User: Which sequence fits this backbone?
């Protein structure tokens, strides 16, 4: 995995050796732990495309450490937290666009 902080992207390397370059879509905290949402760049124009959700930590050098979310109940809470965050951001964006159009 490599992280490009300037571009806000992470390149994931999967167990089979394939890679996916992803936008860092956002972070949320649930139960005192940070989680990251990654949107694959290849699928950015696909409205049905999904995203990757991981537990997020950093090592002593500030490099990201991603972990799987194995508990289904926790995963549901993480998804709900991201949904709420994105809904709030969309609402704020709608207000700005509306103000600019007036």
Assistant:
């Amino acid at each position: 995995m490599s992280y490009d902080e300037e571009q806000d992207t992470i390149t994931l390397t999967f167990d089979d050796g394939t890679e996916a370059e992803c936008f860092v879509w956002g972070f949320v905290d649930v139960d005192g732990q940070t989680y990251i949402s990654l949107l694959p760049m290849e699928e950015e124009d696909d409205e049905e495309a999904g995203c990757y959700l991981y537990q997020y930590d950093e090592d002593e050098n500030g490099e990201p450490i991603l972990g799987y979310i194995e508990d289904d109940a926790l995963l549901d809470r993480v998804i709900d937290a991201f949904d709420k965050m994105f809904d709030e951001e969309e609402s704020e964006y709608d207000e700005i666009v509306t103000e600019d159009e007036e």
